[in-house]
Design goal:
Shape of chain A: elongated
Number of domains of chain B: 1
Radius of gyration of chain A: 16 Å
Helix content of chain A: 55-70%
Strand content of chain B: 5-15%
Strand order of the largest sheet of chain B: 2-3
Oligomer: heterodimer
Order of helices and strands of chain A: HHEEEH
Structural class of chain A: mainly alpha
Strand content of chain A: 5-15%
Strand order of the largest sheet of chain A: 2-3
Largest sheet of chain A: 2 strands, antiparallel
Distance between the termini of chain A: 49 Å
Number of strands of chain B: 3
Order of helices and strands of chain B: HHEEEH
Helix content of chain B: 55-70%
Number of strands of chain A: 3
């Protein structure tokens, strides 16, 4: 297994795990999955441009070499992890703020 | 010097930033949770990115960045996480406002 592949999948799993650990329950919401779908829709042209140009150059030693268009598959796990972690923490801090206000 | 990566970031940020105000999502009323979530994710992903960029997972085409680098990464790559964490929270809150009629 390549390093980026492992890190990307690991980060996606870790973000979902943290959601359960913190009880933020973001991944249980329909709004979360709709937001992910929208982000992925816009990810294709932006990530696609970065990798097509290429502005970011990937080292074949560290990823599988499977690309959707010009985007390495790992980038989808990476993106999922980044978005999910952000929303889990956002929801967590929002709830904590609300609790302090009560 | 080239501003292409910067323009990609601007293109990703433009409509979310505009609509975050127009849609009155109220995310700026929760500046604490917003900044905390963004900062934690940025620090984690900056660390990851600096480490694997040094290791050679990927590199940044000098033809398409302005040429300001910190710890081996172009300034655009640092800003990438600020932009993406904000856009994630915007998208999620916009979807919630529409689907959950907050």
């Amino acid at each position: 297994m390549k390093e980026y592949t492992l890190f990307a999948i690991g980060s996606a799993i870790a973000a979902v795990f943290l959601d359960h650990l913190l009880g933020s329950r973001v991944t249980a919401r329909r709004s979360f999955w709709v937001a992910i779908a929208i982000m992925f829709f816009f990810k294709i042209p932006s990530n696609g441009y970065l990798t097509w140009r290429p502005i970011v150059i990937y080292n074949p030693e560290y990823f599988l070499g499977i690309r959707l268009g010009t985007i390495p598959v790992e980038d989808f796990f990476y993106g999922f992890g980044l978005i999910t972690l952000t929303l889990v923490l956002w929801e967590f801090f929002l709830r904590r703020e609300r609790r302090h206000e009560l | 010097m080239n501003t292409e990566y910067f323009i990609v970031l601007g293109a990703i940020l433009f409509f979310p930033l505009l609509f975050s105000v127009v849609m009155r999502l109220g995310i700026y009323r929760h500046a604490g949770p917003l900044l905390k979530a963004m900062l934690i994710v940025c620090i984690l992903y900056w660390t990851w990115d600096v480490a694997v960029t040094a290791r050679g997972h990927w590199s940044f085409n000098p033809d398409y960045v302005v040429g300001v680098r910190m710890l081996g990464m172009p300034v655009e790559e640092w800003l990438f996480f600020v932009v993406l964490t904000f856009v994630s929270i915007f998208t999620y809150e916009a979807v919630r406002k529409i689907l959950e009629r907050k």
